[in-house]
Design brief:
With about 475 residues, the chain is an alpha+beta fold. It is about 30% helix and about 15% strand. It is globular, with a radius of gyration of 31 Å.
Length: about 475
């Protein structure tokens, strides 16, 4: 049986790569308009970067990381999420000395050993952004507003923003005790994972997808009665900024996120087109993450958006998916029995250095735009040096525009070969005269140019002996 791609991973074929390139271009343009700068971190980090920050008892650490030991005996992990890697880079390179606030974004592959889901793979592409150095709620609204604006610009309508606060290390412990007291009455009805979470982090039981645990969690106490004054003020500030930005949202006390470094703001965005697995992206605040990585206290907030799911939702909602058409820069077709014309070495080098912007077709139609039946379709002056070259007797509709702006030598019609000018004017005496030196349109090269060099014929074609 032939080898196949590993389970949970996929190939992106040339037929669909245009959608990815167009989406990534739109993301970069929007992020840079918001003032974010791109950061690229290694695909492999030390395991402690994720284990210490995400929580030893989190599903990410317990079940989902691709971890291995290298030849030097070091434990390394293929990147499962982007925030911890961004903060590690921020601390390592002295980000606190950069102009504040620091606004970063990334488009990178993530790897999680998880059950493959609709639009979510074990290797998936993620767009994320972080604002580091701002403790106020305005940063929360700004960074979460970035992917929402992206989806709005793509025409997505069925999007629901769910907002919550999970407190901070000051007020959260009281809430965790209240949750332990409540869930301990239903220990036998909880799944095995939630029974373990009851001792380590009962907050994660609220996010369990098992139907039995979810039904019990619906009656659990909410955190809103346990927030202290600082967390309540911050949460109200985030809501006020969302309202000012015209971002619709609903309060959901069961949004807790799956990583232990989150504090205060927690947000998830859902789409009604994905069924049960309908979460499109999530994010929140992580004011204690830098300290867990042995850095100075540094506030931060960010999000992560899976691009596979975004493309899937666009398709299911029937929205036009942006695409980048990959067309050849030059297209040359030889028809007939003549095989005695070969490009010189200088032409081959020239073609590697400069790519002309239009197409060439010798099969009888313009290769640029209009498709007018012609005997040739010009693109740049080197083809005027072809032996026995015959221009079109019928004027092409687009070739004068195609040639203008190709290079400095062609910007003025006065500098075109006279055979091109004759063809443009519709004269029948448009036969090209090729001098022995290769200068197009006559026996003499332009002033100051060698007749046999690149200044004259550009890329002279010659007959093979």
């Amino acid at each position: 049986m032939p080898y196949q791609v590993p389970r949970g991973m996929r190939d992106i074929l040339p037929v669909e790569i245009g959608r990815w390139q167009a989406l990534e271009q739109r993301i970069r343009a929007l992020a840079e308009r918001f003032g974010f700068r791109e950061l690229r971190t290694p695909v492999v980090e030390h395991t402690e970067v994720f284990a210490r920050t995400s929580g030893e008892e989190s599903d990410l650490v317990q079940k989902e990381m691709y971890t291995f030991t290298d030849r030097g005996g070091r434990s390394l992990t293929v990147r499962p999420e982007g925030t911890a890697a961004v903060m590690r880079a921020y601390i390592e390179h002295g980000g606190s000395s950069w102009p504040q606030p620091v606004k970063l974004y990334y488009i990178a592959p993530m790897f999680r050993y998880d059950r493959p889901q609709l639009g979510r793979y074990r290797q998936h592409a993620q767009f994320g952004a972080e604002i580091v150095g701002v403790p106020g709620p305005e940063a929360d609204a700004e960074v979460i507003g970035l992917p929402i604006r992206l989806m709005q610009s793509l025409g997505l309508a069925q999007v629901e923003v769910r907002l919550n606060s999970i407190g901070d290390p000051v007020c959260r412990p009281r809430y965790l005790e209240a949750l332990r007291d409540y869930f301990s009455r239903y220990t036998d009805a909880l799944c095995a994972d939630c029974r373990r979470r009851l001792q380590t982090n009962p907050l994660r039981i609220l996010d369990c997808k098992e139907e039995g645990c979810h039904r019990i969690a619906r009656e659990a106490p909410t955190i809103y009665g346990y927030l202290d004054a600082a967390c309540r003020e911050h949460f109200e500030g985030v809501q006020a900024h969302f309202q000012a930005l015209n971002v619709p949202f609903v309060l959901d006390p069961f949004i807790v996120r799956g990583l232990d470094y989150y504090t205060r703001t927690a947000v998830e965005v859902y789409s009604g087109k994905l069924g049960a697995q309908n979460a499109m992206f999530g994010g929140g605040r992580y004011d204690g993450l830098a300290e867990q990585l042995d850095g100075p206290p540094t506030p931060g907030v960010g999000f992560g958006l899976g691009l596979e799911r975004l493309l899937l939702v666009l398709e299911q909602e029937g929205l036009p998916i942006p695409t980048v058409e990959a067309a050849p820069t030059v297209f040359v077709v030889a028809v007939g029995g003549r095989r005695d014309v070969k490009p010189s070495g200088w032409w081959m080098n020239y073609g590697r250095r400069r790519s002309p912007p239009t197409g060439i077709s010798s099969i009888g139609r313009c290769g640029h735009r209009c498709g007018t039946p012609t005997s040739w379709a010009p693109a740049w002056p080197s083809f005027s040096a072809m032996p026995n070259w015959q221009p079109a007797r019928r004027r092409c509709e687009c070739w004068p525009q195609a040639t203008s702006g190709v290079c400095r030598w062609l910007r003025s019609p006065r500098r075109w070969p006279r055979s091109w000018t004759a063809a443009r004017d519709g004269r029948d005496d448009a036969a090209a005269h090729i001098s022995p030196g290769g200068a197009p349109g006559g026996g003499r090269a332009p002033a100051g140019r060698r007749a046999d060099g690149p200044g004259a014929g550009r890329a002279r074609l010659h007959r093979a002996a």
